[in-house]
DNA sequence: CTGCGTGCAAATGCTTTGCAAAGAC
DNA sequence: GTCTTTGCAAAGCATTTGCACGCAG
């Protein structure tokens, strides 16, 4: 039904940079910012320029290969698309982003007459287990 | 229990600009961006500089008089705090922000062990009634 | 070869900050 | 008069874009 999600649009050229950027996302279990991607890519020897990361991300989002994750109080982050519908948890202490399972019945929120929803974003903020543990001694 | 929410902290001076900025928020029924505030304020003859708006907003948020509204894909907006708990709807066509009544039982989203939630943001995106009407002819 | 993709630097757009002048008390 | 607040311009950031060169096909 949808285009395959494991490769970019056909008209694009395969370059070292693009392959590297995609592998960084595939290896990550949490949403990444463009800078996260650049530094992660840099760790592997050959790097990528930030502008290339931005351009690649834009294309990958348009291709549907990446999903945008908007978080309150910080720039957008991205994660490989196609995962089961889920939402995120942001730890206010360490700023790490966790993926949560499942989704509320958002349909329960009644919209005004004539309004039609196409998507929703839910972000829970709080304190993650490791920060809590660290704070409450040990 | 909480500080009064109808006036700023006591140590601050009352200036024409601050009074104007607060009145703009009180007169608005939807969240405003700093630029929204500046232009709304400007309509009333005497204006305010953007930097003053930014400074006032920051103070008002710290005082708890304003609440921050984070929207996917655009800068933060602000609304007077103290309203009943609610969420927002962003029309993807006209970009207007509407307030929705009620709230889902967010507690239904199970957090991992040890995680503690302190707040949540829910934003529904879609098409509002007036844009839909305009699009479907008439 | 032909042309898309990349890196760098410059340009943006939004928000913050330094500083001298204006205003509140 | 003293100390806060304002406005403007400059500084910061994050993101985008123009361009010349390099690499994929």
Structure description:
The structure is a homodimer of 138-residue chains. Chain A is built from 4 helices and 5 strands. Chain A is α+β, with helices and mostly antiparallel strands and 138 residues long. In chain A, the strands form 2 sheets. Chain A has a 3-stranded mixed β-sheet with strand order 4-3-5. In chain A, a hairpin with a 7-residue loop joins strand 1 and strand 2. The first copy, chain A, is flat and about 45 Å long. In chain A, 26% of the residues are buried. The model of chain A has no long low-confidence stretch (mean pLDDT 84). At the A-B interface, strand 5 and helix 4 of A face strand 5 and helix 4 of B. Strand 5 (116-127) of chain A pairs antiparallel with strand 5 (116-127) of chain B, so a sheet runs across the interface. The structure holds a DNA duplex (25 and 25 nucleotides).
What would the keywords be for this entry?
5 strands, 138 residues, homodimer, 4 helices, alpha+beta, DNA-binding, two-stranded antiparallel ribbon
Q: Please, what is the average pLDDT of chain A?
A: 84
Please give the alpha-carbon distance between the first and last residues of chain A: 50 Å
Question: Helical region count of chain A?
Answer: 4
The outline of chain A comes out as flat
Question: Can you tell me the residue ranges of chain A where pLDDT is under 50 for at least 5 consecutive residues?
Answer: none
Widest sheet: strand ordering of chain A: 4-3-5
Largest Cβ-defined interface: A-B, 41 and 41 residues
């Amino acid at each position: 039904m949808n285009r395959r999600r494991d490769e970019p649009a056909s008209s694009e050229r395969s370059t070292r940079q693009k392959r590297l950027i995609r592998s960084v996302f595939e290896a990550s279990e949490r949403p990444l910012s463009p800078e996260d991607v650049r530094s992660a890519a840099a760790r592997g020897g050959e790097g990528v320029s930030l502008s290339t990361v931005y351009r690649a991300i834009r294309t990958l989002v348009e291709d549907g290969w990446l999903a945008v994750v908007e978080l309150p109080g910080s720039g957008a982050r991205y994660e490989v698309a196609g995962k089961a519908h889920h939402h995120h948890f942001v730890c206010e202490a360490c700023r790490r982003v966790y993926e949560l399972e499942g989704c509320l019945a958002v349909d329960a929120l009644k919209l005004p007459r004539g309004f039609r929803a196409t998507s929703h974003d839910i972000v829970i903020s709080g304190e993650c287990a490791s920060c809590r543990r660290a704070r409450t001694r040990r």
